[in-house]
Design goal:
Two copies of one chain form a homodimer. By secondary structure, chain A is an alpha/beta fold. Helix content of chain A is 42%, strand content 16%. Chain A contains four helices and five strands. In chain A, strand 2, helix 1 and strand 3 form a beta-alpha-beta unit. In chain A, helix 1 packs parallel to helix 2.
Chain lengths: 135, 135
């Protein structure tokens, strides 16, 4: 088991975390996820952590990292299925998962992503760069 | 890690197998899945095995069992993401996964389920039992 599978579902990517995220696995997941976002043009990333019963600051940081990276790649991240004990631990650790959206389950997460993507289609500010039109 | 999470997505259930299915875990998965089919009225079960690189006759039997149980509960089973080596091994083991539908990835599996559910809405043959109408 050297990598966590990433499932493409329409314009979203779904990741189910079922094992402990040790260093190398977490880095591989970050890499794979960003590569997939880039390759598929996914607009949302759903991370299901319903099987995660123990959380530490490392795990919290990884989730934050993934959310930050995805946002730079123009994709929203929603963490779903968090167990109550995990939420308690995260807050006690002082990790409020800034920039990470959460939802109770995958279906609600999908709805949230749909609404986010629906709302965030405002015109982007074009940076005025040199006219490098290569047509 | 004592159980594999089952994600409900609309009228389908999605299971991602990322770990080796030893005896107890497989039985728990079978139980959980059938309970979920019953509780949610799911019409399809998607099993993603893209992270499974080694398969044995036990795994083949478990997939067959799940498909048989689901069919009795009026749900179709589609196995997706099978690695080529796994397909080779299954055939060499003489396991042709009868009754299990397969698709290349989750998206194609979803399409297959949609088409199956669309097709299979033919009227069921009612068994002529005693008239136990409790209205």
């Amino acid at each position: 088991m050297d990598r966590i599978p990433i499932l493409k579902m329409g314009s979203f990517l779904l990741v189910t975390i079922q094992v402990d995220l040790y260093d190398r696995l977490a880095l591989t997941l970050e890499n794979d996820l960003i590569t997939m976002v880039s390759r598929t043009g996914a607009k949302g990333v759903l991370i299901d952590i319903s099987a995660v019963s123990i959380v530490d600051s490392f795990m919290g940081r990884i989730l934050g990292n993934i959310a930050s990276m995805s946002r730079i790649m123009d994709a929203e991240t929603v963490v779903v299925g968090m167990q109550p004990a995990v939420a308690i631990t995260l807050v006690e650790l002082g990790l409020t998962l800034q920039g990470v959206h959460t939802a109770l389950d995958v279906e609600k997460g999908m709805e949230l992503l749909h609404s986010k993507i629906g709302i965030t289609d405002e015109p982007e500010e074009d940076e005025e760069g040199p006219d490098d039109s290569n047509d």
